[in-house]
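Sat 14:20. Reprocessing the chain from the morning session after the first attempt stalled halfway. Input below, unchanged.
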Amino acid sequence: IGGWNAPHFSTDFTSNQWFDALHKWNTKVVAQPSEGFDGFDGFDYDIEGNDDYLSKFSHFTVKELNLMGELAVLLKKNGYLVTMAPAQSYFDVDENNFEIAALHLNGSGY
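Finished this time. Tokens:
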């Protein structure tokens, strides 16, 4: 869920509403039991920014992060795996602060 240039979770919906939508999509739309596929075992948060640094999707609000945390708890409680692969440029060993902006550059300039 997510990716470079992708929109963030809308906070217009609660974590329960997001869970219901993801679970329904996974079990009713994606799953193909007749072919031996019961749906995905989990979801991976791919937390990245946007090519346009001024885009609202180059920053994460506390509300968005809380929603993602609450959703991860709901998914886990219902048997799903939840993983996250933040972009490597977020791992700045010289920085002690929690950063919600996705504006860090890695060594290649991206």
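The chain has a mean pLDDT of 83.
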